[in-house]
Fold:
Amino acid sequence: MKFVDEYRDQAQAEQLAQAIARITTRPWSIMEVCGGQTHSIVKYGIDELLPKQISLLHGPGCPVCVTPLEIVDKALQIAARPEVTFCSFGDMLRVPGSGGDLFSVKAKGGDVRIVYSPLDALKLARENPQRQVVFFAVGFETTAPANAMAVFQAHAQKIPNFSVLVSQVLVPPAIAALLSAPDNRTQGFLAAGHVCTVMGFEEYFQLAKKYRVPIVVTGFEPFDILQGILMCVRQLEAGRAEVENQYARSVQREGNLPAQALMAKVFRVVSRKWRGVGEIPMSGYGLTDEFSAYDAELRFGVAGNHVDEDSECISGQVLRGVKKPHECPAFGVRCTPERPLGATMVSSEGACAAYHRYRRRQPDKHPPAEQG
Ligand code: SF4
Structure:
């Protein structure tokens, strides 16, 4: 298949792995930010192709995984209301809240539906004016333009029975929080190509300079990831800390300007809680005052609800690259995809789900490099 097969070519992948091995002189720890990249790495065994000095850390870029427990609980409360039709992408339905998940609300008679776009939820609201239709607006910068468009159109078309439960988070503040943490082990980043397709990569220059880390905007296929690692290792070995773009076939420095303009109209930057990590200042979106009438938290009176995270799930450490999934005592025992304790075991982009699916249950062959 064109634009896929050439990026999965085994001979090319091996050449890139050899090129990385040739230039690597000491241990390096590199974090792939995105859960989609994590799944490619584990699925294709990319980490096992690398020289033993290179350790890949899995980052916080799985939107389902970082959605905090209290937002999931708010979703459960809203979805259980008799007047509500609650719409979500499918992967949020099995994410455990404090007292069940959205599937369990549906099983008890709640009107919970899987949709493939926020515009499908808006259509439902238009066609069912007697129902309160709520869309669960979860995600990184990648989902924000479509979610902003749904709210913008609801406003323009005067559809008052539509609202969104917003859990939008942003990558650059999360990278800054990781790099500021005392237990940080990451020395270089593979930034998420699809996020940068929307936002560009202007914001990363300041991070690379402030924290002295190379950041390589990277795609998702094995060839992309290996090339991103090669570019990152070249910088690390040369003592450089620059922003480079491996994913030039999709990403431009300024990103998608019309999408950014729409997002700036509908959303404002706010502090957000990340599951297992805690609150990160100015790390997400909330609705602007002009569109606050579409805020489901305000409409259904759940904005002030706060919930503590489950202490058994160590997904916060997994999402910060401090621990690998199989280092969690519950992994594969008390926590499985069928009976998950945390969102990282549920999501199609979750690191725990990837390790479980591709049977990575052994100690890491490439333990992370010590800093210094
Ligand atoms: S294996 Fe389960 S309990 Fe452990 S970190 Fe992953 S999701 Fe949480």
Remarks:
- The mean pLDDT is 92.
